[in-house]
Amino acid sequence: MSTLDVCPVRRLERLLLCTDGSEFSNGAIREAIRLAKRCNSRLYAIAVVEVNPELETYAPGLVEKLERETRTHLEGVKERAEKEGVACETITHEGEEPYRYIVEEASRQKADLIIMGRRGRSGLKRLLMGSVTARVIGHAETDVLVVPRAAVLECRKILIATDGSGFGEKAVRDALEIAVTSGSEVVIVSVAPRESEISDAERFVQKAREMAEDRGIKAETRTPTGTAYEMIVDTAEKERADLIVVGSHGRTGLSRLLMGSVAERVIGHASCAVLVVK
Q1: How far is residue 190 from each of residues 1, 201, 210, 254, 257, measured CA to CA in Å?
Q2: What pLDDT is stored for residue 121 in this prediction?
Q3: Which of 103, 127, 146 is the last residue of a domain?
């Protein structure tokens, strides 16, 4: 059986797909439907019309136009999902700070996974990741799968990034569960910022490799030296991984930060899907 026919996670009953109708949502829509079909999941597609009181007051016609376009887009997503045999419910909100509605719906619907694009309609080209995506990852209690528009999630080869932190170890455990279910190849990477820290990186990957071996998985390890996100993305490219799994915060993450800078930059630069584990 192909990995494309297997649900990569044992429990994915409810998926929340976030879309804004822009081209940047295309990958998330495609992979959410494919994943829902593989896992026999119920799909909830949410779109938020970002408006503020001033816009509603001075340009009500524009607001109505945005609402119509959003409903039409979501109906298209629903139709596309149902053609694949996937039950899909659409959800529309309007207001400021779209991420709040997404996070609230994820909790309300008891979503097992949030799926979204890297950036959206309002994202500036100079930004590597849209603020809505970043804030959803920062605030949601649910794992988030970020899918660039051209990425295809097959779970053939998974790159697991760990720094020995609690979030890093959680990423290892969850990624290995996917690997066991999907029969994936696994590469574990821990980046040493300096030569003097290579021994720490080696210790982190060794622990992760032992966890893999306990599950019957043969994993390769890498301990490059350099800037963490650059080395993770570079290793993923060289290994042709189609999924990177990373913790939402790392060893250097401060509690006041919504999301660790390494995870944020990996998402911003990776060409493959990135699963952010909470």
Answers
A1: 32, 5, 15, 19, 22
A2: 53
A3: 146
pLDDT for 2-49, tens place per residue? 455 788 987 899 999 999 988 999 999 999 999 999 999 999 999 998
Which amino acid is located at 263 in the chain?
A
Classify 206 in phi/psi space as left (phi over 0), alpha (psi -120 to 50) or beta. alpha
Q: Domain range for residue 228? A: 157-277
Chain-centroid distance of CA 73 in Å reads 22
The verdict on 10 and 32 lying in the same domain is yes
Show the tokens assigned to 119: 């950036």
- 151 assigned to some structural domain: no
| Joined tokens for residue 157 | 């080869």
Helix (H) or strand (E) holding 213: helix 198-214
Question: How many Å apart are CA 85 and CA 82, to the nearest integer?
Answer: 5
Tokens of 258: 């919504």
Domain count within the chain? 2
- 152 inside domain: no
**48, 67, 148, 271 from 29: Cα distances, Å:** 15, 19, 10, 16
Least confident of 117-121, 150-154, 190-194: 117-121
Give per-residue pLDDT as tens, 85-120: 999 999 999 888 899 999 999 999 999 999 999 865
CA atoms within 13 A on the CB side of 175: 35
Count Cβ atoms below 10 Å from residue 61 Cβ, excluding itself.
Answer: 7
| Amino acid code (one letter) for 43 | L
**String of DSSP letters for 254-272:** -TT-SS-HHHHHHHHH-SS
Residues 6 or more apart whose CB falls under 8 angstroms from that of 270 comprise 148, 232, 233, 236, 244
CB 104 within 8 A of CB 16: no
Domain match, 198 and 82 both: no
